[in-house]
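haha ok so turns out i had the wrong file open the whole time. this is the CORRECT one, sorry everyone. sequence first:
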Amino acid sequence: MSAVESQLRDAQPPTREPSGGRTGLLASPGLSLQRPSNDRLIWAAAIGVVLLLAFGLRIWGVSHGLPYAYNADENAHFVTRAIGMFGHDWDPNYYVNPPAYTYLVHLVLGAWFGGRAGVSNSFAADPTQIWVIARTIAALCGTFAVWLLYLAGARLIDRRTGLLSAGIFAVAFLPVFYSKLALNDVPTLVGVCLGLWGAAGILRNGRLRDYVWAAVGLGLACATKYTGGIVLLPIVAAAGAQFAADCGRAGALKGIALVAGLSLLCFVIANPYAVLDFPAFWDGLTHQSTASGDAAGKLGLTQDSGYAYYLWSFGWGLGWLPLFFAVGGAVRLFFDERRLLWMLAPPIIVFVAFMGSQERYFGRWLMPVFPFVCVLAAYAAVELADWLGRFSPALRPTFVAVAVVILCGQGFVYSLHSGLVMSREDTRSIAREWMVLNVPAGTKVVVEPVVPDQWAQDIGKPYAQISNGNRWNKYPLSRSMIDPKTGQPVTGDGVIVNIEDFERVLRPELVDVFEQQEYCYVVVGSTQRGRAEVEPEQVPNALRYYEELERRSKVAYAVSPYSKGKDAVAFNFDWTFNYYPLAYNRPGPVMTIYRLQGGRCAQDAPAAG
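then structure:
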């Protein structure tokens, strides 16, 4: 407990005169936020409960979908790169995302399985344990970020604000959901919250060690996800406040120099090939920027305004009431302590202004600024509870409890629902089980790119009669004789088609090809078909293809992720994949398995089941 108590002691801000020029909350005798030192164990127990809740929500359903990783980003990026490093040096050969989380997964897997041989054998026989470990690392990082945000909020304002900030963050839907995936979004929050805690120390104390922690947080945040660099703004604001004080100018200059050097050093340590292979690093960085600014290939992205989209995403990803209170907190700080306002509000505004100007936008990209919103919201709620408590002191605890329910209720309900959904079997796994029972091994099938390639295999038991070991002989949908960009036919071996362009190459004539070549089973998923349905004018041929497929086949099997009686959720690049709406009962798309009835498929066609 000594380390925790030391952090809690350091976290207490001194009574101060706000820069706004009036006596603020923290200097008001009637609204004192100080607590006796013998309350430290109570505060430690309180944040302990919050952390247990945070970790429980994040780890619940962590084994969803396994042994198949159905999230395309999860399956393609960090874990597979971490495993690949066992076969060569530490170069990730991938810089669209920085590699700090990849390195962490690599080190943990190496220690857990005893090196290259253990990892390779486990991944080949059954990758479930590897995926669970990688996802658990993300969940632990998310929980650690909650604790760091508590420390930051307590140091900036007081422990009540820190605890409520941590509570909002602990149950917020987006951080909870993405803690269940082996992606870098949640691990980035560790660096962001550490940097914010260091910035809080700079503002309150101006010590050299505070600049050190701020620099370490900034370097780690950037080395995990480039947008984590937004934490630079509160660090600069805190240093600027120190510089504005006559007695702090020398320390602020030294501190800024330390932040510049040490953050760069931390970034290079966690991302060494940014220097060792700078051209590849720069190519990856520019590719990331180009991709986020190019919506032309993102069929199904129907929103016209990134700013409106991110405002909407705050409402469900963090909560409408926390967002409302955060605005109120910013207004209140304008009068209470403007230097604190300049630390917390500009990062949110700058981040949304930049990200909203891009052509692609996803709710999870907002998460680096969630900590700032949480602190602002908690500050406003504590202010309001204290103000109401002046009129009825006996009800002050009730006002605080109501504030907790108001700010945490929405996130808790939807995060609880997320745990329930993710703990149930994925529709893609259910569809596969039906195929194992009803479609003989070696049968020719068509499977849309709604599942990973491994889905067609029996993990650890390759089918000897097919060269690639698949259980079924899949039609090569990844290659097309239609150029997805122009819609014109191509010659030769055709072109490679990724999942973003799949709907653009569909034609009704494909049904003829399937029947002629005896690909009688066609597996369709709503995460692909839905892209065409929300932008029918973009891919009219795809809609005609589905109409032709339905006309010439029977539904052999179908499984839905929605609760009985609930309407389907229209395709959206957030809600279709994170299952936020309460209509979802289990993860996955609507999976429909069609059995063609004509041509060679008419022979011995089984009855629909």
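The CA atoms of residues 558 and 592 lie 4 Å apart.
again sry for the mixup
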